[in-house]
Amino acid sequence: MQTELNTETIKQIKQRKWKRWNIHLFPIPALVIYGLFIVYPLLAALSYSFFDWKGIKRGAFIGFDNYKDLFTLEPFSSMFWKAFSHNVLYFVVQMVVQNGLAFLLAFIIYQKIRGAEFFKIAYFLPRLLSVIVVGFLWKLIFNPNFGALNVLLGKFGLESLQEAWLGNPKTALMAIILVNCWFGLGFSVLIFLAGFQSIPKELIEAARLDGANGLKMLTKILLPLMVPSIMIITVLTFIQSFEAFELVYAMQGSQGEPYRSTDTLAVYFYRLAFGGSSGDSTAIGLGSALAVVLFIFISTFTAILLKMMKKKEIEM
Amino acid sequence: MKKARKIWLFGLFSFLLIFASACSKDTGSSEKPEKTDEGTKEKVTLSIGSWRTEDTAGYAKVIEAFNKQYPDIKVEFKPSKNTEYNTILNTALQSGEGPDIFHLRPYAPGIALADAGYIEPLDGLEGLDAFPETALAASKGSDGKQYGVPLNMSTTQMFYNKKIFSGLGLEVPKTWDEFIALNEKIKKEGIIPIALGTKEGWLLSAAHGIIGPAHYGGNDFVEKITNGETDFKSAEFVNSIKAMDELKAYFPDNYEGLGMEDIRTLFFTGKAAMFPMGSWEIEVLRKMNPDLELGFFPMPSAVGKDATITAWADGSFAVNANSKHKEEAKKFLQFLTTKEFGELFTKEFKMISANPEVKSDDELVNSLSEAVTKISTPYMMVVYFAGGNPTSKATLELELQGMYLGQQTPEGVAGKVQENAETWFKPFQ
């Protein structure tokens, strides 16, 4: 009797142990995919960046020379900083225009205006299109001779404002960034709206009883409570801005045309690693080095932003 | 505690994964070349790699003609998608595999494969002497050996709308001054003289390929600069850039925002009278507007030389150095040098054969290929200056774009191209 019970409990313990362990088996498929398509390419890029490449042939190990060339050798270094500054502009404009507008729109919808549901869907609609379609669509709209924008300006007698929007270095980058804002607006609205809706009703009622009106309510009560959503949007916008590629590629190709005025780091990477649309030669080593630099930069800043976010949450 | 274990496990898995995939890749590539030959001597099968998926039916006919002479050699045409071809071919070659015969990209990219030892030299292949040196140069290795049999010539020239010209009583210009006068006349009539936009860089180097030789003086200059006797800062070359700058007066409105589709549309809808473009557009233009009366003229010289058509070889066939059937593959390549193949090629693919003896049944294509044998000048930036990183060709495109945007001077353009070429072009070093 005694021994039987013993084996029974041992069995149970074993089963429990196995149960605890088999939980760890479930992530394996995900880990395999993650390892194969994210971790392995990343490490491969890291190893490529330490070699000298002659076309597609790997040459000698050259340590950090590719990194040095990327930042000191012309025209690579000036292309890098030019592209970097464009990414920064991308981030700033998206934060101000896209997310600022999204915050206001989400607030308006939260106030339960008439047709709130309709607006929610309308803002999100662009997001359903493929980026390539969005790029093509706006390319047509911006076309200097047949495009809707110039035709409209002409109809209103504003011929002086007509512009070769995507051919002029002064307007091309901004045009692309604003299209990106249009594209990303709905997503930000959704996140902010979810943030507003998660604020406890009692808090708002209490504030109202204390006499907080519309603006005061927004700045003193709602805004501080929205900090987590704002931080999430900031992090996502940051990552997206520094990875900006598809829309630029769809609208301007891989050369950052015109005259490198729309180059971003990801487009520059594509051109370096795979050769541009102009039949350029490839620089796999330099391209890999750029990819690694980009990865380190994005992950470091994301980590810092996330840490700040944690802190803010605790303060609340 | 639980969290810590999860992280630890995750790290372990990812490490194992990388380790495993790294190992398997190494062993895989070292094993493959050791495979022994199969001794099936009866019927050899050759495979052809290509980026011309649209040519499959045409090559079936080519292979049929080849099999009349060599019934024992089976040939399979296996093209892959244009934009993926280079990647597929390169990875196959790197692992010691790939098709027995493959389509070789012209000049620098193709020559890089030859220099890396992936291509069998074609020493003493009969029939190669039927081709002009301009066609052979596209697949000549740095060691001076021939690595490919050239297929077709591409040309760039000024296309024009015959209806607009005859309607305005205009004639094909014989001198540069006549060309400018012609542009003025067309502009006065409210028609766009030249359909060109500067949004896409490649359009600019292509246009310079047509207009440039009229100012730097065609082949003499090309010979001098490739020998290192002159450079891009020379007055001749700077003049060619200045001419490009002057021509912007005859471009469409908002030309800085126009790309290939836009300018092509302007031309085939009859809004523009002239279109500086390549021979590959002939079929496209005819399809877009079958009523278009399409003509071309060679670019008249500004320095008292012959008018020029810009030409270069645009593709060739090569033998894989790792092929098990090199002898048979060379027999196929020899067939590609014959007039018989050339005629089949122009007929099926509507292109100018690299073999100058071959005639086409299309009048326009025929007169173009005649012009190529008489007054051709190489597309200098593609043929000789497609090296470096970024390439000198890409540098010219970028800086010309800058010039049209008012951010660069013609001298500045020439200077930047020279600066770039000095980093890699041997005669300048």
UniProtKB/TrEMBL annotation, chain A:
Pfam families, A to Z: BPD_transp_1
Q: Gene3D superfamilies, from UniProt?
A: MetI-like
Keyword terms, alphabetized: Cell membrane, Membrane, Transmembrane, Transmembrane helix, Transport
Q: Which GO terms describe its biological process?
A: transmembrane transport
| Membrane topology according to the record | Multi-pass membrane protein
Q: Where in the cell is it found?
A: Cell membrane
Q: Which residues cross the membrane?
A: 21-43, 88-110, 122-142, 172-196, 217-239, 283-306
**A single GO cellular-component term on record:** plasma membrane
Q: Which InterPro entries match?
A: ABC_transporter_permease (IPR051393), MetI-like (IPR000515), MetI-like_sf (IPR035906)
ABC transmembrane type-1 domain location is 84-305
Lineage top rank: taxon: Bacteria
- Mostly located where? membrane
PROSITE patterns (alphabetical): ABC_TM1 (PS50928)
| UniProt family annotation | Belongs to the binding-protein-dependent transport system permease family.
> Would you tell me the protein name for this molecule?
Sugar ABC transporter permease
The species this protein belongs to is: Cytobacillus dafuensis (Bacillus dafuensis)
Taxonomic path: Bacteria, Bacillati, Bacillota, Bacilli, Bacillales
TrEMBL record, chain B:
User: Where is it predominantly found?
Assistant: other
Check the record and name the InterPro entries matching this protein.
Answer: Bact_solute-bd_prot1, SBP
Identify its protein family: Belongs to the bacterial solute-binding protein 1 family.
The question of whether Transport is a record keyword is answered with: yes
Q: Localized where?
A: Cell envelope
- The signal peptide annotation in the UniProt record is 1-24
Q: Which UniProt keywords apply?
A: Signal, Transport
Q: What organism does the record attribute this protein to?
A: Cytobacillus dafuensis
**What's the stated role of this polypeptide?**
Part of a binding-protein-dependent transport system for a sugar.
Query: Know the name of this protein?
Result: Probable sugar-binding periplasmic protein
Sorted alphabetically, the Gene Ontology cellular component annotations on this record are: cell envelope
